[in-house]
Amino acid sequence: MTAGGPPPGLSGHVGQDGSMSIVKINVLTVPAEQREVLEKRFASRAGVVENSDGFEWFELLRPVDGTDDYLVYTRWRDEAAFQAWMEGPMKQAHQGGGDRPQPAATGSTVWTFEVLQQTGPKSEG
Ligand code: HEM
């Protein structure tokens, strides 16, 4: 789709066709003793999301300021692309590997944002 172009984060396409990317952040509250479990689950994550239409970016963010909140940052072409993932591949993406008698997170909240501006570092030379 953007073969040969810059990665999505640097493509500067926001607003060009009247639409803008959206960011969906899943906030996972993970008690200290469950951190390792959670990180291992993500380490063996399904890798499904990267094949979803309209998917642009994923980051797992570990808290370092003393909170228990991990952020699962995802960015999508639009709300419809995110909803399609939620209704389909998301289930497979959340099967992970191995037994899981208990979820590692004690809570989760989804935050939604529109990307209003974005930039990357200026390339040198
Ligand atoms: C009850 C709520 C949720 C919990 C506890 C949760 C937890 C997890 C865990 C532990 C994984 C690692 C894979 C696995 O073990 O299944 C994962 C994968 C993932 N989660 Fe969630 N999740 C939740 C809902 C969501 C939502 C609403 C989003 C949307 C922003 C999301 C985005 C992702 C993505 C993008 C991956 C990687 C999938 C892949 O590898 O293809 N999660 N989640």
TrEMBL record:
InterPro entries: ABM_dom, Dimeric_a/b-barrel, Heme-degrading_MO. Residues 22-111 form the ABM domain. Pfam families: ABM. SUPFAM superfamilies: Dimeric alpha+beta barrel (SSF54909). Coiled coil: none annotated. This is ABM domain-containing protein. It comes from Streptomyces graminofaciens. The lineage of its organism: Bacteria, Bacillati, Actinomycetota, Actinomycetes, Kitasatosporales.
